[in-house]
Amino acid sequence: MKNIYLQTEEAIEFVKRTFSGVLSESLKLTKVSSPIAVIDGTGINDDLNGTERPVRFPVRGLNDRQAVVVHSLAKWKRMRLGQLEVEEGYGIITDMHALRPDEEFSPLHSIYVDQWDWEVHMPYEKRTMAYLKETVNSIYEALKFTEKRVSARYPEIIPVLPEQITFIHSEELLRHYPALSPRQRED
Asked: How many whole angstroms separate alpha carbon 100 and alpha carbon 79?
């Protein structure tokens, strides 16, 4: 019998592989490698909230210029789409690894980040609420498919996702919960 930690690692890999495969097919994404560090001052690394301190180190081959471990790839993804000349309607997906030493450490958060990130070359005329909802529905279908595959492989995991996703605008939340802070309404 396998160690519970090894079983968990295998299950995590199964979920990641299943979800990213379905999402990539649905949104026409190509897997690309992402940087773990970028040269400081290039504008590529996102500050996130503006107060987080990146991990820094000198790069000998660049006259000891400072590099920083990435926090977010939002700017890098857009730049990469252009460099790769990705056609409209297609995109990229990457598995970002980062260090965020100022993250609140808890059972749900770690200073080590392993997250997917994706970006689609979207034509200007597609920047509509209808297209946003269409994309969210595609993502949700990939989540439901993954949940079903996980449940089939691990019968102790019962599917819980509703058949359809519900959309709610922040203004609607404000009307329903005016006394709560924006973060509380989001939660």
From this structure: 22
Give the distance between the most distant pair of CA atoms in the chain: 57
- Global confidence as pTM: 0.82
Which residues have C-beta within 8 Å of that of residue 37, sequence separation ≥ 6? 57, 67, 68, 69, 70
Interhelix angle 4-27/129-153, rounded to 10 degrees, is: 150
Segment 100-120, tens digit of pLDDT: 888 888 887 788 888 888 999
Cα(117)–Cα(72) distance, integer angstroms: 9
pLDDT in tens, 52-68: 788 899 999 999 999 99
Provide the pairing of β-strand 37-39 with 56-59.
Answer: unpaired
> What DSSP state is assigned to residue 106?
S
* DSSP annotation of 72: -
